[in-house]
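Order emerges. One example.
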Amino acid sequence: MPTTTTRTKRPLGRRVQQRAFRVVNVPMRTVLGMPFATPLSKNLMLLHLTGRRTGKHYRQPVSYVRDGAALLIPGGGNWKHNLSDGQPVHIRLRGRDVTARPEIVGDPEEVERLLGIMLSANPTAGRFVRIPKQPDGRLDPDRLAAALRYGFRIIRWHLDPAANTQQPTAADR
C-alpha cells in the first residue's frame, strides 16, 4: 500500500496491546477457521493475507461491522500494509470462505463517519479505537490526526459476489 505518511513509533499502550493480541490471536485463528458460524464469528472474521515482502501466508483475526453490503474493520495493525486497494483477499466469514476487495480509507472526515457507524453497531470497539470525543460528539481532530499519522485506517470490504458461492444469510447480518 503506497503511503505518504511518515512512520513513527507507536505509543506504549498500543505496543502492549499489539503483544497481547499476538497471544490471543492463536486460539482465535482456530475458532474463526471452523467450517461453521460460532458466537465469536458474529463480530470477528479471519483474513488470509500474503506478506508483501516475504510472501508468507498469514491468518489475521479482525473485528468487523456490517454497513449495508460492505464490512468495516479498524485497520490499526501492521497487517494492513499487506493490502492493496481493490485486490481480492480470501476471508473466513461466519464459517464461510468468501472473497472481498479492500478499500483503505484514510480521509479524516470519512474515517470519523465510518467510526461512528462502527461504534454504534459495536460499542466495545471503542476500547481498541481510543480517540476521544469532543463535547459536540465529534472525534477530537488532533487525536484523529495523530492516529492517522501512526497508520490507523478503516478498511471497507466489498464482498465479491462473483467469487462467493455462498452469500450471507439473514442470520449472518
